[in-house]
Amino acid sequence: MTARIAGRMAAGSDTADRARGSVWAGAAGRLLPGLLLCGVITGVAQVLQAGEESLTGHPYVEALVLAILLGTAVRTAWVPGARFKAGIAFSAKQVLEVAVTLLGASVSLGAIVASGPALLTGIVGAVALTILASCALCRALGLPVRMALLIACGNAICGNSAIAAVAPVIGADSRDVAAAIAFTAVLGVLMVLGLPLFVPLAGFSEHQYGVLAGMTVYAVPQVLAATVPVSALATQVGTLVKLVRVLMLGPVVVALSLIAPRLPAAGATGKAVPGRLGFFKLVPWFILGFLALASLRSLGLIPDGAVAPLARIAGFLTIVSMAALGLGVDVRVLAQVGGRVTLAVTASLLVLLAIAVLLIRGLGIG
């Protein structure tokens, strides 16, 4: 009797193990095509960078930027089928989150502490001022109030993530959400490519440029793409400033939840369904991971010998996520977005740039 029970238990355990293995195999099968596509683009970008280095001694266009451009070119010429989507989405989100977390191991929190409370206060003030100014611009251009809030929060905080978080809180129309996210994806890539021009044009130091990138670029991966070609210092400062900006999403969402009942009724259909956002929606886990590793590094608990390998892994994973980011951008979307929306988003971004430059000059950031 005991033997039969033991046999049944063993058989049940084997069945559970096989079921778990089947689930993992199924997940891997769904992710593999998209991961391989991103990996191929990453390999081509790295080969092109190596070619630049052998010819000129310096990579004028880094593999991160090349991966975005290659991914965008592929996406514009050919739309990846359904079997690629899961892997591309995984590369753009989960792979990136791991890369950002690992980047914390090479950052000392002393860099942001040395800037003093004035910079932190300035970031908070700049985000609030940008939201107000952007909303005013959008309303002046005749956009609905919810669309204005989506554009303002997307520009001021963290692009698509902020739009996605704010939309259900204010009951935004789903078509407005799609338009805001689509245009933000294209404009974000243009920002990555054009922002480094501010170094020679404005005479910024590497530290100043890091603050500018962290204050103006939409997403964390785009901050990396915009700062890595400049210097390691710009990357560290830019990432830290950007993460402080992202942390503003929580208070902004709370504030919008309080004013949402007072917004005028939406005239269009297809509103986003209001819902409650959990802690990790407002403070993503990779920000906590980044800060944890940065704290360990600052305390000397991560050995120096481990920093370089972790940085190389983070760099490779970031390039993979850049390829996925490019694969999500179709430049033809510009032709499908209304003129008022295009003007509103562009003007809002210019306001953010102006506020960031004034912040840098006003605080005397060196």
Automatic annotation (TrEMBL):
PANTHER family: INNER MEMBRANE PROTEIN YEIH-RELATED, UPF0324 INNER MEMBRANE PROTEIN YEIH. GO terms for cellular component: plasma membrane. The chain crosses the membrane at residues 21-48, 60-82, 94-113, 119-141, 148-171, 177-199, 211-234, 240-261, 282-303, 309-329, 341-360. Its main location: membrane. It comes from Methylobacterium phyllostachyos. It is found in: Cell membrane. This is Conserved hypothetical integral membrane protein. Keywords: Cell membrane, Membrane, Transmembrane, Transmembrane helix. Pfam families: Cons_hypoth698 (PF03601). It comes from the Bacteria. InterPro entries: UPF0324_pro. Belongs to the UPF0324 family. It is a multi-pass membrane protein.
